[in-house]
Write a structure and sequence with these properties.
about 375 residues, about 20% strand
Length: about 375
């Protein structure tokens, strides 16, 4: 799991007056992950949340039954089950995105855009660019000295609706009270253009079934079953178990995608296919959109012009026009109005006005070596 560099919650964000002179401090830019990867919908639920809220408002795609275990076997086991199921869903969705072959570098175009924004507001260029990927800052520079730190991550939301870019800006002066708590922190989040699904139609089911059939054909299970039937009682038990498992997996997926309405599984599969289509072109485009907006927010943060609590500002639209993805029911509408709003005194989110997409899972992202089911 990729973890965001955490500090105790500050009382404020950057203030150009209180933090005058911060531009003299060395600045480091840290990529928390090297490539775009999927988030998984897990928040480290307490036993109370597992047994109460989770059953009422389950994470899309995760069985509410997992929450019931909280009362029967204890919160720790329930949490482990919920986390494992959420990670399994993320892995499977990722495989539908260009067969899991999307390798979109999170640093480009994001870091060049952020560096340009720093130059515009008179801040120093980063002394060092670091890819952390679960490592320690101490391995790259001395975090006990006064410095500024910009860390970032970009990942797909658990339901595969949008790409979320999170930029965390922190500063420690010589007078910082603690090296574990920055003088100021700004968290800047940008949700890309979402991949919206209109009402499910027959052509959507047909498309998904075609994709599922291609997957099943690639497993070679039909030939495996033929070998088992020919061998009869002498069939290899391990081969038999593998054949049964693959057939059950296919049947379960088929039931989920052939329902009249969008199921969480069918919706996640469809969006994942969309992000991975044309060699992951939309994923690349979404990161480019987010880079432009994140750079704009960084400049606002350093000039003290981010909206205050209770305020909401219009943000530039991400692009022009709308386009169909996969089928007529799947749309990428980059021309929709966007808003910039404060979620907390130093936390800001830029998103399409429609909203409704979770942004709390940016710290639960599958590791690079944990993407295969």
């Amino acid at each position: 799991m990729v973890s965001v560099v955490q500090a105790a919650a500050p009382v404020r964000g950057y203030d150009p007056v209180k933090d005058d002179g911060i531009e003299t401090l060395p600045l480091y830019m840290v990529a928390l992950q090297e490539t775009v990867r999927p988030q998984y919908g897990y928040l480290g639920l307490s036993p109370e949340l597992v047994t109460q809220s989770f059953i009422i408002n389950p994470v899309p795609g995760i069985s509410p039954a997992a929450g019931i275990v909280g009362g029967a076997l204890g919160g720790a086991l329930a949490n482990a089950m919920v986390r494992a199921e959420a990670m399994a869903i993320a892995r499977e969705n990722w495989q539908w995105a260009n067969n899991g072959q999307c390798r979109i570098d999170t640093r480009d175009p994001l870091e060049p855009a952020l560096v340009q924004a720093l130059q515009q507001v008179g801040m120093p260029a980063p002394q060092q660019h670091v890819v952390l990927e679960g490592g320690k800052l101490e391995d790259h520079f001395d975090p006990t000295l006064a410095h500024q730190l910009i860390s970032h991550s970009s990942s797909l939301t658990p339901d595969m609706t949008a790409l979320l870019t999170t930029v965390r800006v922190e500063g420690w002066s010589d007078k910082a009270r603690s090296r574990h708590q920055a003088d100021w922190v700004n968290v800047l989040q940008v949700l890309s253009t979402p991949m919206w699904l209109d009402g499910k139609q027959a052509h959507d089911t047909d498309y998904l079934k075609q994709q599922l059939d291609q997957w099943y054909a690639g497993t070679g299970n039909a030939a495996r079953i033929g070998q088992i039937n020919a061998a009869g009682r002498n069939a290899d038990p391990a081969m038999r178990r593998q054949a049964v498992s693959l057939q059950r997996s296919y049947d379960t997926r088929l039931r989920r995608i052939t329902r009249k309405e969008w199921t969480p599984y069918a919706a996640g599969m469809t969006r994942a296919l969309g992000w991975g289509s044309n060699d992951c072109a939309l994923m690349t485009r979404a990161l480019q959109e987010n880079a432009r907006e994140a750079a704009r927010l960084l400049a606002l943060a350093y000039t003290g012009k981010l909206p205050q609590e209770g305020q909401m500002e219009e943000a530039p639209v991400a692009g022009q026009g709308a386009e169909q993805v996969l089928t007529a029911s799947v749309m990428y509408r980059a021309d929709q109005p966007r808003h910039l709003l404060p979620l907390a005194p130093s936390v800001h989110l830029s998103q399409q006005a429609a909203g409704g997409i979770p942004v709390v899972h940016h710290h639960t992202v599958l590791d690079a070596d944990d993407l295969t089911p």
